[in-house]
Amino acid sequence: MAVALRLGVQSPRFEIRRDSSTSLALTSSFFSSRISLEASIRSFIRKRACGRRILRVNCERGVSAFFKEDEASRQREDGDAAELSIVMKFGGSSVASAERMKEVADLILSFPEERPVIVLSAMGKTTNNLLLAGEKAVCCGVSNVSELQELSFVKTLHLKTVNELGLDKSIISVLLDELEQLLKGIAMMKELTLRTRDYLVSFGECMSTRIFAANLNKIGVKARQYDAFDIGFITTDDFTNADILEATYPAIAKRLHGDWISDPAIPIVTGFLGKGWKSCAVTTLGRGGSDLTATTIGKALGLREIQVWKDVDGVLTCDPNIYPNARPVPHLTFEEAAELAYFGAQVLHPQSMRPAREGDIPVRVKNSYNPQAPGTVITRERDMSKAILTSIVLKSNITMLDIVSTRMLGQFGFLAKVFSIFEDLGISVDCVATSEVSISVTLDPSKLWSRELIQQELDHVVEELEKIAVVHLLQHRSIISLIGNVQKSSLILEQVFNVLRKNRVNVQMISQGASKVNISLIVNDDQAKQCVEALHSAFFEDGFHSEFKETELGDNGSPVPSVSAM
Ligand SMILES: Nc1ncnc2c1ncn2[C@@H]1O[C@H](COP(=O)(O)OP(=O)(O)O)[C@@H](O)[C@H]1O
Ligand SMILES: N[C@@H](CC(=O)OP(=O)(O)O)C(=O)O
User: Fold this and answer.
1) What domains does the chain contain, in order, with CATH numbers?
2) Pocket of ligand 1 from Cβ distances under 6 Å
3) How far does residue 226's CA lie from ligand 2's centre (Å)?
4) ipTM of predicted complex
5) CB 547 within 8 A of CB 562
6) pLDDT tens across 347-371, in order?
7) Helix, strand, or coil here: 69?
8) How remote is the CA of residue 289 from the centroid of ligand 2, in Å?
């Protein structure tokens, strides 16, 4: 039996067949007559409920019917009304010029079977230049704003791109004028607040997306530009480091999905930006926040995959700027990727894994300069049986505090008191090592990403802690985080200490993350780079896995057949 639902001219055609591969929840009396059904339908709406796709068909006289669909039958039977399938995020390095914008457009079109949502960052180094222009505007005087080198850079880059793509400069000229006005306002006020800073950097993403969408339309691919702050990205009012609020998910799903159904066009969304729920002002999600925009859209729309396109062949075994021999890591779990990002790997925004993990949507990290490279796939689980070390992350310029209780051994409540001081002062802690009477902690240098832990704040912490303990403040330290299989921690640590001993490096603190994917070592800043190089060579280049192939014993004491460093 085939039941065809044909909707009016404003709605796309929709047809459902009742066969073995389609599960429909219908009441037979309702579908007794195909003719009356065709006549009675007014509208339909697709949504997700309990992890399933539901089609709600609204008929005359308020009658509604609900259909449960499986993905395969929906794809097959719903050709022209197919839903958005993936999100593709391109970072600043991927869209740094007109040439790059063309290449990215070609790249998107090389996946004709996909119906992507595109998220873009600002072009190249635009964000940094806008921030510098803002800082200089504070003290340069209103009449000198137009001459600011950074403003000229931003103007020239965008106008040149528009020109080279053969687009009308009116798509960005209003924004460029507004930007200059804003900088003059900053110069007049002699002040750059965090709120103004967010508004200032938002011009980068607003311009890149307008240019990209206009270019797609010019080459005949229908695209629609969106400013994230206008379509439901609702955030906290923590300017420069805002958090996405739950209300965002239904709001952006409704807007993007609704527009797509009524008039399909590739959505081009500004990364990094949101709207504060109380202030209604533009907010940003922290540096590199476009990754988070992409994963948020992925979860909101229940997409099949989230792709983040970078300028490297995926997540690498370490930062290629620290050690050029780094290699791509083929597979990571959400946990590993989150830990890696949190402990300083610039490649992913620290919060970006959360929506992907909650929606259980795979994230693929790819290279827009080398699309053939397989990249890194990040999923909920992976086969850890052969995994030892996955990646090494270095975070420098860390402050460490050694806090020793002045009270007797056995005094309870010491840890609680120490942490309540951090809480009161709003200071977040990275690594912790404790004994009954002493505690060592490292302090997050980027604290909330926006302001450095300034000396004044450090002095304040020490002053408070000295009321209950003897405190040693140790600066210029580095955290080397070893992301991997902590089930194999003895093996990892044995190798680590061999390497460090050979290199005459003393570890000052060691901490094993509760997440079970991270061992952190604290060393002096001036020894850190050399340590990372030596550790990378030992784990990824010097036949570490084959060496252990022969000797390593499994959990039950029997030899482990083979091990690999990834
Ligand atoms: N472990 C790592 N793996 C890959 N890239 C890393 C790693 N650590 C740091 N990076 C740096 O991150 C950069 C890619 O991230 P990012 O600058 O955010 O790209 P985009 O601006 O294109 O989104 C790389 O060019 C590389 O220098
Ligand atoms: N443009 C913003 C947001 C961003 O995500 O950039 P990128 O994807 O180029 O790291 C920044 O520079 O922080």
Assistant:
1) 2-81 (no CATH), 86-295 (3.40.1160.10), 390-551 (3.30.2130.10)
2) 91-94, 121, 288, 310-312, 315-316, 318-321, 345-347, 391
3) 17
4) 0.98
5) no
6) 999 899 999 999 999 999 999 999 9
7) strand
8) 6
